[in-house]
Amino acid sequence: MVAIIKTGHSIHRIFNYNENKVKEGVAQCIGEGNYPVDLENLTLPMKLNRLLKQAELNENCKRNSVHISLNFDPSEANLSKEKMMDIAHEYMERIGFGSQPYLVYQHFDAGHPHIHLVSVKVRSDGSRIDMQNIGKNQSEEARKAIEKKFDLVVAEGRSNNLNNKLEPIALGKVNYGKIQSKKAIANVLNQILTNYNFTSLKELNAVLSQYNVLADRGSENSRVFKANGMVYRILDQAGNPTGVPIKASDFYNRPTMKFLEERFQENAKKRTPFKSRIKNATDKILTNSRISIDEFINLMSKQGIAIVKRTSEDGRLYGITYVDHTSKCVFNGSDLGKNYSAKAILERCTAKDNRATEQIRTKEPETEIPTDQNAAPLTQPIPDTNAVSDTSITDDKGLIDTLFEIENACDFIPNQLRRKKKRRKRRRRDNNNNF
Fold first, then answer.
1. Closest CA to 15 of 53, 66, 57, 62
2. How far apart are CA 322 and CA 341, in angstroms?
């Protein structure tokens, strides 16, 4: 069993979420806790007012709603409603909510059996229930005890698989027309907004785009943008929006721009320790490899890191975003440092190829024979001294004059020989003077 606990500002929101599921036929209210009448006699106003009245006992408690889901293994699909209710009562008692009013809903819109519990943080005396580290402490102990008591599949060691169940380019991509658009987008948002650490709308869209979803504020002159609004859309295979946009306020968790801005600030601190993982993976791939940008993206994806490119209309790459599906952190390239921006990555991918090209260019080019028959040869032919051409006979001097012409022999005497002769004459003169 896996328990997920969320708190919020609106009891109406979580109550309407579950009741709307009931209206759609994908959920059923199977029980209650600490209500004055049995479930069969409860009307919708009675269900909601019980929670609202107790929450009003402490107006200083702003995040007063509690929404808990208990998720069971798919092999436990045959769990009865009675057993689920026993598990719900046991769990609420162990985490300190045994005396709180709560409703239990069984949902049928997932591949595994699960129930939702709706309650409040304010006690009947007006005090507030401290939920600091409740998931790590009370909930974890309750989970282990319930698994043992009710003979459930042990969730120990499965947490990593649950956290990493969203993979890039997976079958979980939203395909327009196959299922209800709002439901498909909501499933993606529930996973991304809860698990991933992003600090801007561009970084959020880098993750959402891998599941064919877009968070769209419209153009700066649009009514949605001016009202600080937000709509969510489905993307087709080419990355273009398709279908009817859905307002953020129509979703259960209301992922509006105001909500996202709060998450941006919270996530900035959470993601800082995970920068080194992306940087180390990038350096390891690019240090000793001659690869292209596409090969780099492919190798990074094998490390669980998706590279989302941002290109201009003319196809020029001007930015990249790193989506780490292992640490669930998203970084713009420049946030990691200059060496990890789009420009630097392009240079690092092509640097070795450029150096190889320069080495080839610096080599002496091989002599090529021109293909044009009229072109002049690159080198002059070496004359054949044994051959006698017809033109030499018709020369003005004539062949006989040329053969007997006296050449200046001094031009062919080396300078060193000349010096030796002069030295010999000087020595002879010195000898005559001595006598």
1. 66
2. 10
Comparison of pLDDT for 387 and 336, the residue scoring more: 336
Residue 421 backbone phi and psi in degrees, to 5: -65, -40
Q: How many beta carbons lie within 10 A of that of residue 390, not counting itself?
A: 6
Alpha-helix residue ranges (DSSP H) falling in 201-256: 201-208, 223-226
Tokens 């919270």, located at residue:
266
Give the list of residues 6+ apart from residue 289 with CB closer than 8 angstroms, or none.
Answer: none
Q: What is the DSSP letter of 56?
A: T
- pLDDT given for residue 146 in this prediction: 95
Q: Are strands 241-247 and 231-235 parallel, antiparallel or unpaired?
A: antiparallel
- 162-212 residue pLDDT tens: 444 444 434 356 655 445 678 888 888 888 988 899 999 999 999 999 889
Sole residue written with tokens 């609202």: 52
What kind and span of H or E run contains 191? helix 181-195
* Cα 285 to Cα 298: distance, rounded to the nearest angstrom: 11
19, 44 contact by CB (below 8 A) = yes
pTM over 0.70: no
